[in-house]
Amino acid sequence: MLRLRVGFLLIAMVLSVFAARLVQLQGIDPREYAQMAADEGSVTAVLPAERGRILDRNGLPLADSVDGLMVVANPSVTGPNAPGLATLLSKRLDVDYFETLRRLRIPEGAEGHQFQYIARKVPATRATNVLEEAEARGWKGLDTREDPVRFYPGKDVAANLVGFLGTPYEDGSARPLAGLEAAFNRYLSGVDGEATYQVSKGSRLPLGDTTITPARDGNDLITTIDQDLQWKAQQVLRQTVLGARADSGYAVVLERSTGDVLALADYPTYDASSPYDPSVPAGEADANHNSRALTDVYEPGSVEKVLTLSGLIDAGKVTSRTKFEVPGALHRQDRTIHDYFEHGTIRLTLAGILAKSSNIGTVMAADKFDRGQLRRYLTGFGLGERTNVGLGGETRGLLPSGAMWTSQTADRIAFGQSLSVNALQMAAAVNTIANGGVRVSPSIIRGEATADDGRVVGTDTATERRVVSEDAARQTALMMERVIDPEAGVAPRAAVPGYRVAGKTGTAQRVGEGCGCYDGTFTVSFAGFAPADDPEFTIYIVVQNPRNGQGGGSVAGPAFSTLMGYTLRRYGIPPTGARPSQLPVEW
Q1: Could you tell me the pTM of the whole model?
Q2: CATH class of 40-67+148-222
Q3: CB of 391 within 8 A of CB of 452?
């Protein structure tokens, strides 16, 4: 009994001590202890927002975020070994030595003396290896926090469209340098959160005050791009440009009814995961980082004739069967217009003018336009205005107006000179014919998204406008089929076996940057759609400065055939089984 009483007494004494201490902490001098904790300091750490993904139309990632780490330091611990640590970190993490040295040496009592950022968005394995190497040398005070890293699984697939991120800014925020990453940076970025907590001697106080503001992750950006088709377009384009010993090229694939851009390929391109190839000069590398299909400006050449002749038909000036006597040369004002092939006077229908790609015949037909009428049609097709799909750096091209629109200029514009376009702009114009005369604005973004410049773009904001009548578009499509015919036209190599194809070649002189004049080089192209009698897709191939001496039908035509055949098969589009156009080309 005595032992039991002694035991209770001891327990009561211990509890009394604890109670007294609790009263001291919570009731007698809480301010003193709070001040002690405050004197030790508090740390505010970033809670990084996860950047939104860039996805293809099927939800496959073109740009994603994977596990990464930020490397942080406690200068109250790293100070004595700062020079050695700064050397290690600058070599392993590609950070500035002197700035890192300063951060590792923040003096006691100064703001941030217990917490400094050293590097952001470091691949997890790389960051862990650096910390292990520092530990092995006996250097303490480094730590890591979660910090997602940008990743481009397709490497060069759609790189010119997607863009890439550079080294983060000093505050750790993303540094977008090209493409959609730059154009929609705010939409993708989200907002970082932060956590503030108390520390003592470099360690977090378990019972200290903690304030957390959660991060708000960025939005996913869903594109209209079909990743597999994009890959195929890039492969075909690369082979075509290299095979022609050309400077560059672009390929555009549009879904006819919606204007969705299924592929937008450029060559040369680059690996978005490693965008700076040391073997490529800096200026050239910067040009490769953007989509030349939007930034390059060039004369479209004879593809333009499709727009000119469809406008004439719509205006009631001609039909596909209207007859023309086309001389071997046409003397106009200050110059003589020739065709690419030598001939005397030949009798061609309007369909024959397009099938043979006659400049002379096109100018003779265009003489039937009323004053200002051709320009109004070209404006309706979207020439002279940006497509505004959301990417920066897009050119509007050049469509002369006012005093610049002379009779000589009008002659050249009718067959594709003295005006300029970008590739997506021209593809959308030809797609208007495929779409029964209604222009649907092209889209790269599905749904809608707000670009950094404030524009809201996407398929939900796409617009339509009628440019030519359904009958004019149908007659033009039938004439374009004759371009592919091996007996009547100039581009039999653009045919797709089993399918009716409508198309048009283009060969245009290029203006040299130095002289501002035609420099003897050429732009060659092919634009078309299939099946011609029930179109599903429009494809436009452009090659700049081929050195093999061949034109649009021989260089771009086979590329069109390969890419269109692949697209039709990929989407399961069967041949219509109808007979191709037999419009007369001569009379």
Answers
A1: 0.86
A2: alpha beta
A3: no
